[in-house]
């Protein structure tokens, strides 16, 4: 920087000294110091400072009066700009430089014309930047302020950035001795630079980001505004948003947005703009929602003119439930005025969620009636690719109520945006419950019948996200939502995207119904002691509701054949729920569901990379999560359908048995093999009905690939000794059957090390079973190194020396080992 500053000083040293300039020196020195002629012989530094103090003052005014450096003063002082710029050079006294930059800063406040006159001198920007390194607080503050004004002009911003202004300003900002005034000037200069996307990366790459974010907590409101403006501009670039979030900007912006003081008007605007930009990312949006804010689309004030308040009637909660009428109605109608609530009776008092829903509804409906719910110029500051999709940020109580209010309007675009915003905001149970209490479920179900396809898809998306809550699923059923959902499934014109969302909602409702039925079954068993009665009740409950005809089953089967693995899992879940009825099982058989299940199992084998097949060596051996879930759902559906003779006769049992065996040997998770083993057992028991009597027993394969790995894992991972004890005893029963493959399976699944560990932990029958298993394993010399490496020898010697009840078994095992 110093060579550049020296060059700039040299470039300005040739400026001519106008003859009027010398006369000005003489006149002003005489006028400012009339009573002290001796001081006229001071050095040139003193004379220059006197000039700088009065050069822009009015010629007729008294000394010391306040100077107006605005447009009126610029015309009289512009002739001396060359001198002041030259005095910024390194060859001048530090105090002269300070006074010169202070004067230029005041002159730059005159506007664009004044700044243009300063910038007409080549190299002056470099000299101004060099003053940021001075120890003088006044010089640094004036230089930063002058840079702030210069960088407010786009044509000079690039010049300043290329001259190193960003680095020097950030360096000054990081000084511990910085004053609040200097801090404001620096931040405002950075704010100017952040307008251009080309310079945002420099600000982000520096160490100043964390400091800028911390300035949001400063007491000085001007500093807060400047820091908020910088963050708002940085957030315009998607690549910067991650760094902003990591710096902890979201909680601070939320706090500023929720501050209600009048002085915070600008900072609230900047905070809202930043949060709207950050909310474009789904993850950051969820973080904002966790802080208690909701993103709401701006649909235009004209749209709300269609809002029509409901006529006077007995008050109800936003979700549609009526408020219980009090037994002591008011003579003058106060009961209705107070919404029928009796605050003195705890039974009549609603919970917090209902109270928040009522507050939000009252606020938003009042704003809509008076026409103040949305300003016409709101959101104009937003830009980018989503200019047509403008949003604002509201506290969740008001945001939830406004989104539900928009659902009841007439504008199709507004309804679509609100429905999608409801889905985006339904990230946790609190938000889903809030939308339920605000009355969002009923209008969303009604929108499934809307004429506009995008509106139907948006409503399906919202219901899909909301249905993650069991409370919402119950509300959908209570509102009669099953019928429109099933009608959408039956409609062949339903788009695939919407169908996928509806099937997901149905699968969630099915899961909920099964859980609730199981709970009722347990309660019924306890009450009556008759499990058969409760089971009958469960089946009747599961098949209750709208009856799906053949068209609906055919449509689901077609989706199952063509859908992605994730959707296949959901469709199988719904069909499994229906497969308890022979009517539905017959329809599934007629639509060739068996062949589709067979195809899904074959895909699972391909992805699972069967262990005994050389054709799949080049394919991935790890089963993807989606494919795994689809295959397991298909296996559970197959298990249910095997209860019906008509389905068993329609399939090739040998083919299914072969597929399931290969899956049992594949790399599917061990927990998943429980379903495969159960299906194999059931298929073997039902195979005689298909006319294929040649299906071999599969007990051995189930034991090798499912039972033994499960017991070994239980020994490895169980926390309680009782679970380990039961696993080793059951494993001993299997090994004692004398099947060589069982012993090899124990060694292949890593069972030697947990068994040796049991030698030190077990006693009684657990120790006896462990010694018996290890003795069988020691019969194969290939297992000797693993048994010794696991530390069995010292443990066996300790058992022998203890002369316990099993010491003879221990010494026999020692004799088989090469020790």
From TrEMBL:
Pfam families attached to this UniProt entry: Arm (PF00514)
SMART domains: ARM
SUPFAM superfamilies, per database record: ARM repeat (SSF48371)
ARM-type repeats, residues: 164-208, 207-249, 439-481, 750-792
Name the UniProt record assigns to this protein: ARM repeat superfamily protein
Protein's organism: Digitaria exilis
Source organism phylogeny: Eukaryota, Viridiplantae, Streptophyta, Embryophyta, Tracheophyta
């Amino acid at each position: 920087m110093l060579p550049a500053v020296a060059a700039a000083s040299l470039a300005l040293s040739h400026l001519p000294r106008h003859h009027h300039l010398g006369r000005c020196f003489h006149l002003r020195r005489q006028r400012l110091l009339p009573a002290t002629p001796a001081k006229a012989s001071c050095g040139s530094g003193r004379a220059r400072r006197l000039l700088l103090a009065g050069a822009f003052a009015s010629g007729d005014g008294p000394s010391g009066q306040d100077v107006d450096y605005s447009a009126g003063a610029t015309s009289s002082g512009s002739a001396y700009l060359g001198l002041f710029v030259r005095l910024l050079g390194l060859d001048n006294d530090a105090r002269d430089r300070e006074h010169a930059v202070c004067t230029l800063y005041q002159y730059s406040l005159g506007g664009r014309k004044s700044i243009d006159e300063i910038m007409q001198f080549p190299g002056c920007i470099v000299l101004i930047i060099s003053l940021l390194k001075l120890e003088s607080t006044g010089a640094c503050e004036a230089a930063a302020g002058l840079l702030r004004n210069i960088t407010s002009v786009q044509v000079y911003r690039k010049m300043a950035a290329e001259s190193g202004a960003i680095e020097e300003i950030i360096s000054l900002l990081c000084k511990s001795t910085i004053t609040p005034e200097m801090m404001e000037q620096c931040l405002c200069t950075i704010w100017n630079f952040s307008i251009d996307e080309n310079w945002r990366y420099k600000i982000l790459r520096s160490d100043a980001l964390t400091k800028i974010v911390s300035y949001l907590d400063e007491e000085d409101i001007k500093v807060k505004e400047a820091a908020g403006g910088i963050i708002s501009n940085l957030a315009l670039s998607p690549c910067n948003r991650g760094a902003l979030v990591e710096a902890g900007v979201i909680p601070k912006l939320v706090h500023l947005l929720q501050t209600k003081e009048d002085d915070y008007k600008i900072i609230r605007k900047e905070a809202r703009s930043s949060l709207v930009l950050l909310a474009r990312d789904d993850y950051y949006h969820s973080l904002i929602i966790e802080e208690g804010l909701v993103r709401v689309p701006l649909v235009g004030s004209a749209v709300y003119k269609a809002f029509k308040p409901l006529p006077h009637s007995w008050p109800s909660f936003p979700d549609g439930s009526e408020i219980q009428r009090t037994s002591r109605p008011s003579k003058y109608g106060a009961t209705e005025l107070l919404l029928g609530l009796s605050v003195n009776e705890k039974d009549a008092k609603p919970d917090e969620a209902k109270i928040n829903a009522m507050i939000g509804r009252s606020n938003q409906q009042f704003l809509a009636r008076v026409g103040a719910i949305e300003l016409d110029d709101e959101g104009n500051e937003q830009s980018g690719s989503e200019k047509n999709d403008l949003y604002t940020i509201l506290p969740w109580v008001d945001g939830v109520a406004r989104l539900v209010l928009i659902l009841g309007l007439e504008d199709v675009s507004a309804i679509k945006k609100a429905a999608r915003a409801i889905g985006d905001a339904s990230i946790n149970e609190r938000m889903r419950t809030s939308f339920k209490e605000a009355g969002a479920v009923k209008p969303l179900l009604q929108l499934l019948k809307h004429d506009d396809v995008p509106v139907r898809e948006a409503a399906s998306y919202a219901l899909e996200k909301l249905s993650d809550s069991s409370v919402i699923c119950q509300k959908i059923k209570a509102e009669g939502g099953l019928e429109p959902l099933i009608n959408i499934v039956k409609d062949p014109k339903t788009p695939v995207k919407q169908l996928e969302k509806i099937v997901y909602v149905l699968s969630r409702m099915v899961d909920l119904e099964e859980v609730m039925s199981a709970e009722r079954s347990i309660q019924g068993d306890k009450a009556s002691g008759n499990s058969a009665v409760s089971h009958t009740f469960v089946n009747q409950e599961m098949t209750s509701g709208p009856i799906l005809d053949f068209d609906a089953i055919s449509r689901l089967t077609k989706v199952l054949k063509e859908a992605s693995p994730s959707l296949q899992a959901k469709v199988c879940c719904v069909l499994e729920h229906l497969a308890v009825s022979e009517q539905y099982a017959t329809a599934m058989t007629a639509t060739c569901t068996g062949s589709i299940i067979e195809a899904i199992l074959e895909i699972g084998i391909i992805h699972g990379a069967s262990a005994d097949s050389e054709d799949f060596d080049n394919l991935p051996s790890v089963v993807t999560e989606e494919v795994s879930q689809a295959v397991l759902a298909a296996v559970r559906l197959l298990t249910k359908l095997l209860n019906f003779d008509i389905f068993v006769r329609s399939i090739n049992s040998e083919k299914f048995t072969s597929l399931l065996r290969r899956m049992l040997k594949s790399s599917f998770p061990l927990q998943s093999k429980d379903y495969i083993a159960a299906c194999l057992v059931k298929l073997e028991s039902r195979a005689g009905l298909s006319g294929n009597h040649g299906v071999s027993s599969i007990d051995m394969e189930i034991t090798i690939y499912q039972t033994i790995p499960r017991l070994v894992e239980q020994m490895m991972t169980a926390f309680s000794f009782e679970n380990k004890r039961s696993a080793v005893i059951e494993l001993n029963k299997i090994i004692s059957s004398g099947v060589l493959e069982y012993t090899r399976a124990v060694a292949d699944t890593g069972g030697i090390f947990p068994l040796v560990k049991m030698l030190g932990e077990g006693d009684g029958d657990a120790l006896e079973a462990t010694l018996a298993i290890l003795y069988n394993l020691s019969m194969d010399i290939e297992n000797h190194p693993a048994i010794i490496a696991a530390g069995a020898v010292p443990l066996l010697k300790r058992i022998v020396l203890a002369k316990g009840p099993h010491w003879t078994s221990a010494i026999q095992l020692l004799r088989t080992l090469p020790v």
